[in-house]
Fold NlpC/P60 domain-containing protein.
Amino acid sequence: MKSLHLDRATLKQVKAYDRYRTRVAEQRKSAKKAIRFARKQIGKPYRWGAEGPGGYDCSGLAMAAWREAGVDIPRVTHAQYRQVKRKVKLKELKPGDLVFFRGRNHVGLYVEGGRYLHAPRTGETVRIDKLTKRRKRQFAGAVRPGAPEHKTWSPSVMELVEKIDRMSADQRTEEKPPDKERTPQNPPATDTAPKNDDSPEKSPERTPAKKAAPPGGPASSKPARSPKQTRPEPPPRVETPGGADFRPWAMYTGSTFEFLSAPGPEAV
């Protein structure tokens, strides 16, 4: 924000709008939880004065659903409408909103697509119904639990916050470390590279050759044993010449010649 050189008044508006939209996002998550809980109650009987878990009346179901979402609202319909600050028009309904009918004597939870979930009356069960023309004529208001009171924001403030969001996203992208597996200095691991169908997964095993027959004799009928099964014969010792020109280690030591015999295998 400092790089944008915002004055104190503008900065205050930006922070206020950011808090507002954060509360709106949190309310939408809570609304999904309330609807999810209410859907699980479908089929349970209407019981006057009940608030679950075996049965509900209309306001008891609304209270229990929002309580499950972490939002406390009053128990009866009139208090629910009065105490929830965010009022909503019929054409602005969103999932989770409480919809009131018949002088606010009945309430249901708006689902989506012009439908609402409610506990209708004695002898019936919790279900989802359509907002028919008759129901729309009975509409007596709606509220949005958990939402901040509606406020109109300046388009310039909203655009400024969106610009800050983009700047923050770009900065996070720049600070993100490069992919270690795909840099020129460190190519991807061989096991992540695509396999070639023509190349075998394992190199073919070396088949030991049969022992050659001695001159004038038959070849051996026994198969040659693998190196693991046979201990190799030690190589013959080579007598070191005593000549003064023989300097096998001189190139490594860089010193005046002193006879050093190369180590050989121990005699078996």
Notes: The mean pLDDT is 77. The domain at 7-143 is CATH 3.90.1720.10 (endopeptidase fold (from Nostoc punctiforme)). Helices lie at 8-40, 58-68, 77-83, 133-137, 155-175, 250-253.
